[in-house]
Amino acid sequence: MIYSMTGYAVASTDAPRGALTLELRSVNSRFLDLQFRVAEELRAVEPMLREQIAGRIARGKVDCRLYFGSSPSQAQQQLNIQAIQQLRTLARDAAKTFPEASPLRVADVLRWPGVLAEPAADEDRTRTALEALARRALDDLCAARGREGAKLAAVLASRVAEMRRRIAEVAPLVPEAVSAYRAKIAERLREALGASDEERVRAEVALFAAKSDVDEELTRLAAHLDEVERVLAQGGAAGKRLDFLAQELNREANTLAAKAAGLKIADCALELKLLIEQIREQVQNIE
């Protein structure tokens, strides 16, 4: 399967301290670039996340955001009676000094540090939950990248088919075009050099024939298109390979345009260059 470098996934699970949420975003990049925004209390699991992501994704910029959110389990927090008693004592002593001060409200009491007892931290349970969460989020991200990659592969396949059609149309025209152009060149050389220098005319025409022969370029274009189709069928991390093949296709199309011996061949070369540019644009999104 061909994978795009663009994708998004988010997954959540319950953990001892609340709802644990992992958010993954990926965009294009020349290499694998991992960026982390992790809650301070979860910093210890960052190496594990890095290892899991690197094991599934070969290329792209991946932003990873990991944080605790609210969950129903947090509604079951208990009051810290000892902290409340200490706060009441402090409030009573403060009232003696500031008799005009307003008494504490319930909301003020609940916001006081330590009044609501936090669930006991369980590092092992949190890590286990996070490992499963990371696998699930990565599955979703890779699936999204795979769906996008399938669309890109279909676009590339259609451009390859169109290039093959154009090459098949122009290939039979090459001998006739070269022959007509050779005759035209020979006539002009005879006018310039005179009939007495027929040997020179034949030599120049033969040299032109060698330079204007585009069979080699058409053969190479077909071979490169074969390789593009092979890479697409093979799948995996194919972006760099496809980018290289697009460059080689463009090189051959440029040579074809330079050596074109007829208007139809030149038009074909320009159309091929347009299709190749469309391929290169799509390849930039492939892993």
* Proportion in β-strands: 5-15%
- In quaternary terms, these chains amount to single chain
Radius of gyration equals 35 Å
* Main β sheet profile: 4 strands, mixed
Number of helices: 9
Any low-confidence stretches, pLDDT <50, length ≥5? Answer: 71-75
How do you describe this structure in short?
The protein has 287 residues and is of the alpha+beta class.
What does this structure look like?
The protein has helices spanning 46-56, 81-97, 106-111, 123-170, 173-193, 198-212, 215-234, 239-259, 263-283, and strands spanning 7-15, 18-27, 32-38, 60-69, 78-79, 116-117. With 287 residues, it is an alpha+beta fold. Among the domains are: 78-117; 147-283, no CATH class. A four-stranded mixed beta sheet has the order 1-2-4-3, with helices on one face. Strands 5-6 form a two-stranded antiparallel ribbon. Strand 1 (7-15) and strand 2 form a beta hairpin. Mean pLDDT is 83; it is low at 71-75.
Which features does this protein show?
four-stranded mixed β-sheet, two-stranded antiparallel ribbon, 287 residues, 63% helix
How do the strands and helices of this protein lay out in sequence?
Elements: E1 7-15, E2 18-27, E3 32-38, H1 46-56, E4 60-69, E5 78-79, H2 81-97, H3 106-111, E6 116-117, H4 123-170, H5 173-193, H6 198-212, H7 215-234, H8 239-259, H9 263-283
Helix pairs in contact: 1-4, 4-7, 4-9, 5-6, 7-8, 8-9
